[in-house]
Design a protein that fits this description.
This protein has about 230 residues and is mostly helical. It is built from seven helices and no strands.
């Protein structure tokens, strides 16, 4: 296992920790309001969109400068963690170079679009979301197929399959919400978004930890003092 892969896995762990901490701060500072109820107090884990947290003005009309800055930092950290995960996970499918390239290319495109999501508005915002979802699904499906072919442990691809299912469902509800505007979106949309986020973070952490542990084991086996 190369040093770049190990450092990439360590970066995933650090970026996820930073992203989770910043997201917690953003949730705490959020003034209130959801797409379903502008007068809802504070932050709702299941009914607020992540994009609500990144806005300088909350859904209830109250300015949110510090919280939105923390949320944007969290989104950037988690996006970079996802990008690093797409770059290191092909270590588990070393015998499939074409699939490894597909994972890295699609994953990179998806992460670039994901980083643009909180920076874009209107039509550009929707385009960035759909691009991130489509490229992420392509990278995820390629990863699941490659990992299944490699006959590795089921734990490597089953959590990712769950992430893909949640992302696909969220994309469908988002498309319906865009088509139905100006009607309020379905409560299922922010819920599936959060489920997908939790599953994605769990998968990133599990992947990075397995690589780091494998690196430590390999180093211990080659340590002359062992």
């Amino acid at each position: 296992m190369s040093g770049r892969v190990l450092w990439g896995a360590r970066f995933v762990l650090l970026a996820v920790a930073c992203g989770a901490a910043l997201l917690g701060i953003a949730m705490t500072l959020y003034p209130g309001g959801t797409a379903l109820d502008a007068h809802a107090p504070g932050h709702s884990f299941w009914l607020n969109f992540l994009c609500d947290l990144t806005a300088g003005v909350a859904r209830n009309g109250v300015v949110n400068p510090a919280g939105s800055l923390a949320a944007r930092g969290a989104m950037l950290a988690l996006s970079l963690a996802l990008g690093a995960t797409w770059l290191v996970v092909p270590v588990f499918v070393a015998g499939q170079p074409a699939m490894a390239r597909a994972i890295r290319v699609a994953g990179t495109i998806g992460v670039v679009a994901l980083i643009l999501v909180p920076l874009a508005a209107g039509t550009a915002h929707a385009v960035a979301i759909f691009t991130a979802a489509a490229a992420g699904l392509a990278a995820g499906i390629s990863t699941v197929v490659a990992l299944a072919r490699s006959r590795g442990p089921v734990r490597r691809w089953l959590p990712l399959a769950a992430v893909l299912a949640a992302t696909a469902a969220d994309s469908i509800f988002y498309a319906q919400a865009v088509h139905a505007r100006p009607l309020p979106p379905s409560p299922a949309l922010p819920t599936f978004q959060r489920v997908g986020l939790l599953l994605a973070v769990a998968w990133m952490l599990a992947t990075a930890l397995e690589i780091v542990r494998a690196g430590r084991l390999a180093a211990a086996q080659h340590d002359p003092r062992a």
